[in-house]
Design a protein that fits this description.
198 residues, alpha/beta, Rossmann fold, 4-stranded mixed sheet, 45% helix
Length: 198
C-alpha cells in the first residue's frame, strides 16, 4: 500500500516543529520529508535531516530541471520539495510528514489529491504575538511575520484539519489522532477489503 502523505502548515510561532518532532518520535515508521532551502543552517540543524542546504545557484539549476514539485521564495530564501524523493518514500509504503507553507501546499494537493492537509494554529492572536516577541527579532521583522501569519491562515482555510496548539502535549495528541484516523480510512484499504469478499 502506498504511504500516507501528511502535509502540515503553520504560521511562524505556532509550534509546528515541536508537534511534528514529538509525533515522529511516537511513530518510528513515519518519516519526515526533507525539503531543500538556500537559507543557512540554524544551530543544531543537519544537512539531509532538517533540510538539504543548497546554494542559490544550485537551487535555481534544479528549478530549471523541473526537480521541484513546488518551490517558493520566502524572506529572501528559496524553499522547495523534490518530487522524486517524495515519490520514492511513498512508493515504498512509508508515511511522510511534509512541512510546507500554504502556497506550496496547494501545488502539492494538485499532484497528491489523497494527501491529508493539517493546519496548526496558536490558541489566539495575542499568544502568537507573544511567541513571536520571544524570538528577539526587531519590531519590523515581527510585524512582517505577523502579517504573513495572518495571510497564511486566511489562505489555509481549505485544509482538512486544524490543530490548535494551546498546550504542546494536547496538540501532539490531536495530531496523532488525525494520523491514526487517516490510517484507518476505508478508502485506503479497498484492496484488503476486496480480498475478503473475493
Amino acid at each position: 500500500m502506498p504511504g500516507l502523505l501528511l502535509v502540515v502548515s503553520a504560521p511562524s510561532g505556532a509550534g509546528k516543529t515541536s508537534i511534528c518532532r514529538e509525533t515522529l518520535r511516537a511513530f518510528p515508521e513515519l518519516r519526515f520529508s526533507v525539503s531543500s532551502t538556500t537559507r543557512p543552517p540554524r544551530p543544531g540543524e543537519v544537512d539531509g535531516k532538517d533540510y538539504f542546504f543548497l546554494s542559490p545557484e544550485e537551487f535555481r539549476e534544479r528549478i530549471g530541471r523541473g526537480e521541484f514539485i513546488e518551490w517558493v521564495e520566502n524572506y529572501g530564501q528559496l524553499y522547495g520539495t523534490a518530487k522524486n524523493t517524495m515519490d520514492a518514500f511513498l512508493a515504498q509504503g512509508h508515511d511522510l510528514i511534509l512541512d510546507i507553507e500554504p502556497r506550496g501546499a496547494k501545488a502539492i494537493r494538485e499532484v497528491y489529491p489523497r494527501a491529508v492537509f493539517i493546519l496548526i494554529l496558536p490558541p489566539s492572536l495575542d499568544e502568537l504575538k507573544s511567541r513571536l516577541a520571544k524570538r528577539g527579532e526587531s519590531a519590523a521583522v515581527m510585524e512582517r511575520r505577523l502579517r504573513t501569519a495572518l495571510d497564511e491562515i486566511r489562505a489555509a482555510l481549505w485544509y482538512d484539519y486544524v490543530v490548535f496548539n494551546d498546550r504542546l502535549d494536547e496538540a501532539v495528541d490531536r495530531f496523532r489522532a488525525v494520523y491514526l484516523a487517516e490510517k484507518c480510512r476505508r478508502g485506503r484499504h479497498d484492496e484488503r477489503i476486496a480480498a475478503f469478499l473475493s
